[in-house]
Design goal:
alpha/beta, Rossmann fold, 5 domains
Length: about 650
Amino acid sequence: MSTLQSENFTFSQIIKSKAQVCAIEGLSGCAKTEVYLQRIHALYEEGIPYSQMLNIAGSRYKIKSNTIRFKQKWSEEEKYPSFITLYSFCYQLIKKYNAQHDIETWKAYKDLGSIVMRLVKKHFNLDLSFEECECIMSKIALSKTSMMSEKEIQAIRIPNIDVDFAYLFKQYEKEKERLKIYDFEDLLVHAFQLLSTTSLASLCSNIQYIHVDDAQELPFLAHLILHRLVNNEKQLHLFYDEHQQLSLRHAADLQPLQALESTYASVERFELKTNYRNAPAILSLAESFYFHKDMEETQEIEKDVCFYKGFQTETELYAYAEEKAKASQGKCLFLARNKEMLLPLMDLFVKNEINFQCPSIKYFFKYSFITDMMHFFDLLTDPRNLLAFEAISSKLNIKCSEKTYQSIAEQLSQNDDFDVYQAIMNANVKAEIKNGIRKYIENFRMIQNASSLAMFQFVLQKLEYRRFLIQENISLSHPAMVAFQALCERYTDPKDVTTCLRTLASATYPDTARIILDSIDTCEIEECSEVYVMDMQQSLFPLTEEDTERKRLYLAMMKAQDHLEFLFAKRVGNTRLRPSSFLLELFKKPEKENVAPQNVERQAPALPRRGRKIMHESLGEGTILKLDNHLATIRFANHNERTLNLTFCLNNGLAKLL
């Protein structure tokens, strides 16, 4: 039996429902969590101990948030309920059973993406991006929580990633067994097996009432576990919003929520529609965008409540964000589509001693192109840094053995005035290595004292790193690249850029500050007085499928209680950025075409002959001894011979012919 209540009911009807299953659906801001907490308290008021309730929350953050809200609302209580994630509950069952049977319990980890990346590199010689790793992890989760057969697993294909998924899946399972660890899906699988073969009385006999918040995030196997727990004797309340389901990492499945009537004898449904969170203008804008409602049928945008602000540069954008953070009185949330875009803002807040909370940024250094850029900067600012040269030599198509590096190191230790490049020319190394360094040698020396942005462009163009980025399908408007360029724009000295990044990576941030920085995907904070969406550019919105991206932006908007702003910059460094089509849709602005400027190359002058005298800016007068295309071996004073890119020197005013 199923009944649906919509609008014409009170919260007390949900709280006191005696149906075996009560499903409560509602959009963001419709008080689902409030009713969830009231239901728990009402049962306690009826004399039912908290020990008979299983209160499932979606995450550790939700556990903390629900506990604080409960204590604030019923502060006079002597006892309080406990909240737990379904994964932790399953882990408790496994540990309890294993203790009873003297079985070793393995450790459990939420994220084993690093293992997948290592296995893909080992077996398929591929470097996965974070997005690609997430895609594979979601398929692994789906395989387990959907209880797929071996044949079904063999049929899985990963779009645009050339791996044998079935083989990778087997290697992944073997690696976990070798390390004696579980992933979170293992917890569900083992708990379900226990509940299928073991008496409930020995595992969780006390539980009579089950409450699940954020039920839209449950995978199929989690619903089977709940069904085992309910077992026709207990009551189950499910609170969910299908429009809030974003993460596919743990294979969330809405279908069981839609088919409860085929699983349980008695189901009562309630639909919450009244919004208690957002200012009317914010709610109107969000619903018109996501549900394609006509704004005229809802409400016109209030310009002081929600609007967008454009800037010429990212520097101006971040300065504006800092100003807003200082002026805010309540909770203030800065959201980015990707966490990388928060780095320049974090740096600005640290410099100006603004307390804030944010996620770790150590992931930033897992992007190989970011670590490459930092090593390039390290080498170009300190030409004796052999470790930095070793880190980026492959990007210059220079392959050195361990013996070669030892020879170069000996030259550096014996000659204090040698840089890495001259050490290579003087070391006993293969001719191909010397030839490889010759075409860059003067470029390296020329750029040593350049600004950060000039050095960034130099690496891309003169060292041909842009070609590598294109091969890896990495755009200059990639969020990590945009963040790096923004820091280059802020710090003229390249050393300050790398120092800033390493400082931010090692810092810790309090989780109690009222200023919050987070990405849309990972932010679990439900509401803030002010919300600023930081990076409304086309390369990020939409980044994947339009429907999914539309949902992301909708959820970001629904976190704003009183004030909502969208921020966009036209360029960062020398990279032009386009406004998001979503931004143009929200505020009905036609998009203008961007015309790329034409680059004009200068033609190189003819090279002089051997024996010609030259005057070098820093090395003084010299005589050309040998010419090899654009490279010249020149003898300077005290018989000091140096190999230079003569064309480069002449073109850039570093040398002139005598």
